[in-house]
Design a protein that fits this description.
about 60 residues, mainly alpha
Length: about 60
């Protein structure tokens, strides 16, 4: 079996990125659990008062730690 060598920094960066990805996925799951359910009637009322939601994608800042 061939051995693979990577630097300590490469390993650390890879682990950090993997942890970041998993945390992002878990945060999305948690956010979806706390979003309240609203009926279609409530949604129509909201749209009547405030307009339909924008389909623009929010910009996201990536933090470098």
């Amino acid at each position: 079996m061939p051995s693979i060598t990577i630097s300590k920094k490469e390993l650390k960066d890879t682990v950090k990125e993997s942890v970041r990805e998993v945390l992002a996925q878990e945060m999305m799951s948690l956010r979806s659990l706390i979003i309240p359910f609203i009926s279609e009637k409530e949604q129509n009322d909201i749209e009547k008062h405030y307009g339909k939601p924008s389909r623009k994608v929010a910009k996201r800042r990536l933090h470098s730690y």
